[in-house]
């Protein structure tokens, strides 16, 4: 198992639109493409309240590469992302990490 950690740093004031896009579009397309989210978080306390952090579970990096590529080229995703960004981008930049559990991790 591999966990993908993604942190979206939003353009100030655009986090509500990013939440809407995830709730109304992205999650349905994740399901369509077999992408398994573990959870989504915003910062309760921290350096900024303009981030969305989430984790995805993968069996392997090969699975991630295939499923993520299919998601990114999905015509519905391309259309909906474009529509959600008609007034400018929602995200300034994304941090992306792939995590492997330690031998003593409760989550394997």
From TrEMBL:
Q: Which Pfam families does this chain map to?
A: NIPSNAP
Q: Which domain of life is it from?
A: Bacteria
Checking SUPFAM superfamilies in the record gives:
Dimeric alpha+beta barrel (SSF54909)
Where is the NIPSNAP domain positioned along the sequence?
A: 4-106
Q: Which InterPro entries match?
A: Dimeric_a/b-barrel, NIPSNAP
Q: What is this protein called?
A: NIPSNAP domain-containing protein
For this protein's source organism, the top of the classification is: Bacteria, Pseudomonadati, Pseudomonadota, Betaproteobacteria, Burkholderiales
């Amino acid at each position: 198992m591999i966990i993908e950690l993604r942190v979206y740093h939003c353009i100030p004031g655009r986090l509500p639109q990013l939440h809407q896009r995830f709730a109304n579009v992205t999650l349905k397309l994740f399901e369509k493409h077999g992408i398994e989210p573990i959870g989504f978080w915003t910062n309760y306390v921290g350096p900024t309240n303009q981030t969305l952090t989430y984790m995805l579970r993968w069996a392997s990096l090969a699975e991630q590469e295939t499923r993520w590529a299919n998601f990114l080229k999905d015509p519905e995703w391309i259309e909906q992302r474009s529509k959600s960004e008609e007034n400018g981008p929602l995200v300034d930049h994304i941090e992306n990490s792939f995590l492997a559990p330690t031998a003593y991790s409760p989550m394997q």
